[in-house]
Amino acid sequence: MTPLPPIEYLVECSDIALQQLELKSLDLAAQCSKRARAEVEQAIAHRGTAEVCRFLIENRSELIDLAKLVADGKQRMLRFAERETA
What we know:
Elements: H1 7-12, H2 15-71
């Protein structure tokens, strides 16, 4: 993290220098926000993967049995029991 320059320096800066520092700071803030959004999106994607894995851990044998029934023509579609949400 880049600290704020000393106030003595800022007070003595020209308007152009202050404007440049302002624009650079806004640009850095935008870059940080963009990286933060990307991290949140990646976290959401990982959470989704974990939820699919949990669903398969809990329901794999039932899914295989249901798929066999469909393949054998004994059932037309897969039906899943309602899952309670936490």
